[in-house]
Amino acid sequence: MKKINMLWTLLGAIIIGVFNIIIFSITKTYNATFWISYGFIHLAFVMVVISMISKTKVGKSISIKNVRITFSFLYFIVELILGTFFILFKDVDFQIALVPQIILAAIYGGFYILSLIAYESASADKEENTIPISKEL
């Protein structure tokens, strides 16, 4: 694992640790709404970390990887706000907390898959348009 990937992972572990300390110190009752929101917040954060440490071929579509990171970060921010709202107002029925978070995750998943398709398409187009150079030149 590259040093930069290890540093991103370490930063992620620190953020998750601080988040867990804060959430578990301010919340004393843990119902289904709490656990659903807690799980979706962590899923969003894991996707940010995965987007940052995912490999791209050198020199190919680095901007598409940046789009993936941006989508992941935006998903995390929106999920953090939505999930924290449901954690703080845990008297809400768990279906009311579950449905918007599933919809949000599905929208994010669609964008993420589209970015993977765009990356593969850009890589294939670049390889098709490359003219092999003869060694005899």
Report what the structure shows.
79% of the residues lie in helices and 0% in strands. The protein has 137 residues and is mainly α. The protein has one domain. α2 (32-53) runs antiparallel to α3 (62-88) and α3 (62-88) packs antiparallel against α4.
Question: Could you state the order of secondary-structure elements as H and E?
Answer: HHHH
Helical residue percent band: over 70%
Alpha-beta content class = mainly alpha
* Total DSSP E strands: 0
Report how far apart the termini are. 39 Å
Please give the largest β-sheet.
Answer: none
Q: Please give the domain count.
A: 1
Query: Which whole number gives the mean pLDDT?
Result: 82
Hey, roughly how much beta strand do the residues contain? Answer: under 5%
The parts where pLDDT drops under 50 for at least 5 residues are none
Gross morphology: flat
Number of helices: 4
Radius of gyration: 20 Å
How is the topology of this model organized?
Elements: H1 3-26, H2 32-53, H3 62-88, H4 94-128
Helix pairs in contact: 1-2, 2-3, 2-4, 3-4
